[in-house]
């Protein structure tokens, strides 16, 4: 295997960005088929909640209907979406974030643009397309398509306004031994790259709610959420918990690609965490 192949996922993680302007060109059949079979096999998150994904071709009428809703109005040129459902349950939002982000990275590696849309969107349109049952929710969707070379003015504005290109500093997100001491990359070994992969993850409004504490002298990493007051504005949906699942997928994919073994466990790290909410631990 070529050296560059070995870091395929890490590169995909860094290459991904939110695409809000799409070329008016149909997705190649072979690309759609590959993506479809990936979606079909992606059925369960690390916490065991069941997810289902579909590629949804929205008709022109459905697209106009969607345009009435805030976040979609900013998206140009896409009519095909990846939509999904998760069965309501404990840590359902984390599982959905984790699984959907894997789809996003697969789409990115196939040359497609994506943007997570979890704000105001016409969920009933997608619920019908997904044949969603009462106990399933649609936390977020993403359009898929070829990124247009020229991003619209609005797209540029949104990206700048939401700080799309920026991320918090390493030491603001990752901590050493407790939730107060900034982590120094030098003590993390190969995990420094794993944490960088989390840093470049997408998050709702780019709030980057992930706070990760490295347990001293171990490869155990405890994941906490810095919750914003808007997290539970929508019934059954907590968008920042999606962000936590997204961070877990970047962490795990990067770790596995670098040959680092570990698994997810929910435990009580027994740390003074202030207002941070404990989610999960990686036991490396
Ligand atoms: C769960 C989730 C929900 C999001 N919802 C929206 C949305 O409704 N509208 C939108 O334009 N962008 C949305 N985004 C995209 C973020 O604004 C974007 O990921 C972030 O600003 C970082 O930029 P980047 O993806 O280009 O790295 C969402 C992202 C996530 C993870």
* Helix content class: 25-40%
**Based on helices, strands and strand pairing, what is the structural class?**
alpha+beta
CATH architectural name of the largest domain: 3-Layer(aba) Sandwich
- At CATH level 3, the topology of the largest domain is NADH Oxidase
Overall mean pLDDT: 90
Helix segment count?
10
Describe the biggest sheet? 5 strands, antiparallel
Give the bound compounds.
flavin mononucleotide
Q: How far apart are the termini?
A: 26 Å
The CATH class of the largest domain turns out to be Alpha Beta
**CATH homologous superfamily of the largest domain - what is it?**
NADH Oxidase
Rg (CA only): 18 Å
Uncertain spans:
1-5
| Strand tally | 10
Beta percentage is 15-25%
* Topology order in helix (H) and strand (E) letters: HHHEHEHEHEEHHEHEEHEE
* Tally of structural domains: 2
Compact summary:
Helix content is 35%, strand content 17%. It is α+β, with helices and mostly antiparallel strands and 284 residues long.
In words, what does this structure look like?
By secondary structure, the chain is α+β, with helices and mostly antiparallel strands. It has two domains: 18-154, NADH Oxidase; 170-283, 3-Layer(aba) Sandwich (NADH Oxidase). The chain has ten helices and ten strands. Strands 1, 2, 3, 4 and 5 form a five-stranded antiparallel beta sheet that branches. β7 (210-214) and β8 form a beta hairpin. Residues 17-18, 71, 74, 115-119, 140, 158, 162, 164, 202-206, 239, 242-243, 246 line the site of flavin mononucleotide. Flavin mononucleotide (FMN) binds at residues 17-18, 71, 74, 115-119, 140, 158, 162, 164, 202-206, 239, 242-243, 246.
């Amino acid at each position: 295997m070529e050296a560059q192949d070995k870091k395929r996922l890490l590169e995909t993680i860094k290459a991904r960005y939110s695409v809000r302007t799409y070329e008016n060109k149909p997705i190649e059949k072979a690309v759609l088929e590959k993506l479809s079979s990936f979606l079909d096999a992606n059925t369960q998150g690390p916490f065991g909640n069941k997810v289902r994904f579909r590629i949804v071709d929205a008709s022109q009428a459905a697209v106009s209907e969607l345009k009435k809703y805030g976040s979609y109005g900013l998206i140009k040129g896409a009519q095909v979406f990846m939509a999904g459902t998760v069965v309501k349950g404990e840590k359902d939002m984390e599982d959905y974030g984790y699984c959907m982000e894997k789809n996003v990275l697969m789409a990115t590696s196939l040359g497609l643009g994506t943007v997570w849309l979890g704000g105001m969107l016409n969920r009933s349109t997608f619920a019908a397309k997904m044949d969603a049952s009462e106990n399933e929710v649609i936390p977020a969707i993403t359009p898929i398509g070829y990124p247009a070379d020229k991003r619209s003015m609005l797209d540029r504005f949104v990206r700048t306004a939401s700080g799309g290109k920026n991320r918090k500093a390493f030491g603001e997100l990752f901590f050493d031994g407790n939730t107060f001491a900034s982590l120094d990359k030098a003590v993390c070994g190969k995990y420094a790259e794993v944490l960088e992969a989390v840093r470049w993850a997408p998050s709702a409004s780019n709030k980057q709610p992930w706070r990760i504490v490295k347990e001293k002298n171990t490869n155990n990493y405890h994941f906490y959420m810095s919750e914003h007051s808007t997290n539970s504005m929508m019934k059954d949906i907590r968008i920042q918990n999606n962000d936590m699942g997204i961070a877990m997928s970047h962490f795990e994919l990067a770790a596995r690609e670098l040959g680092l073994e570990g698994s997810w466990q929910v435990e009580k790290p027994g740390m003074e965490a202030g207002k941070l909410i404990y989610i999960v631990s990686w036991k490396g």
